[in-house]
Specification:
The chain is of the alpha/beta class. The chain contains eleven helices and seven strands. It has a single domain (about 15-300), classed as 3-Layer(aba) Sandwich (Rossmann fold). The chain is about 45% helix and about 15% strand. A seven-stranded parallel beta sheet has the order 3-2-1-4-5-6-7.
């Protein structure tokens, strides 16, 4: 489906792009880059916050959606299906499961409710969306891009639920990639590290505990993702420093890695944080619903 070149041929073949969380961060960057590569592409965005009106030059339709609840997910998927089956929607489909969030602290802080919302948004939403659109993807051809995180490669104390959701996304994506290898659908799992997005704010920090010099930009993450898509890779870790960290951690016993990760992440507890949140506020929900998540966010991203 995609030729081995910088600009994936599938981006030209895909007339419809369904994306979650395109109002900011990595999601917004995906829309900008894809629009530049394929000006004819039409976008359907699912998030609480609407993207900027200028995004995608009028080719983007926004559907307000709460993807952290079963009712919100069902309503969003019904809207996506109607859009894909509408007049003028032809060509392949590119599905980008990007939305997610993380929280910092000893489990079950800041609240069990927030942890369950994280599982629903980070896991249930992409699984349900992919499942419901898979028959159309197989029929029309296309690709699925799932945003995971470098947090997927090791246990993450203080981000235990978040890291667990990203490990699920990575392993599920790779399994799905192999199952669909002989179809017209390619699956790519993207694992960013710290990224300049709103992740830390959503995780409860007043300011990012990681230097901007250690973070990638959303544009860099998207460029790495599309290069991987062009060469039909099933998995990409964004940035050489992140690749090196993943390689090293894979060669260390997991219990040791857990101890090292604990000591590293414990240092974040000394940073300035927002007062403990018992339940997500409307403002909080607005911020994380539009973000792409990752340890990048965790140790900065969506």
């Amino acid at each position: 489906m995609c030729a081995a070149q910088t600009r994936p041929e599938c981006l030209l073949a895909c007339g419809a792009v369904v994306i979650t969380g395109a109002s900011s961060g990595i999601g917004e960057a995906f829309v900008k880059v894809i629009t530049n590569l394929n000006p004819k592409a039409k976008f359907f965005n699912l998030s609480r916050t609407a993207p900027d009106d200028s995004l995608a030059a009028g080719q983007l339709e926004h559907c307000p959606a709460d993807l952290s609840s079963a009712r919100g997910q069902e309503a969003a998927i019904t809207a996506v299906e109607a859009w894909l089956d509408g007049a003028g929607q032809t060509g392949g489909i590119l599905l980008i499961n990007n939305s997610g969030f993380g929280s910092f602290g000893f489990f079950p802080e800041p609240s069990l409710e927030r942890s369950l919302q994280m599982i629903d948004l980070n896991i249930r939403a992409p699984v349900l969306l992919t499942s419901r659109l898979l028959s159309r993807l197989k029929e029309r051809g296309g690709a699925i891009i799932n945003i995971s995180s470098t947090a997927a490669f090791q246990p993450t104390p203080f981000f235990a639920i978040y890291g667990g959701t990203k490990a699920f996304i990575m392993n599920w994506s790779l399994g799905l990639w192999r199952e669909l290898r002989d179809t017209q659908v390619h699956v790519l799992c993207v694992c960013p590290g710290p990224t300049n997005t709103n992740f830390f704010c959503a995780a409860g920090f007043l300011k990012p505990p990681v230097s901007e010099k250690m973070c990638q930009t959303s544009l860099q993450v998207v460029q790495a993702s599309l290069r991987a898509l062009a060469t039909r890779k099933p998995l990409v870790v964004c940035g050489w420093s992140n690749k090196l960290a993943v390689m090293i951690s894979s060669r260390i016993p997991r219990v040791w890695v857990t101890r090292l990760t604990y000591m590293t992440l414990k240092k974040l507890s000394t940073g300035p944080k927002i007062e403990k949140i018992k339940a997500p506020s409307p403002a909080f929900n607005e911020s994380w619903q539009s973000m792409p998540v990752g340890k990048e966010n965790a140790v900065t991203r969506d």
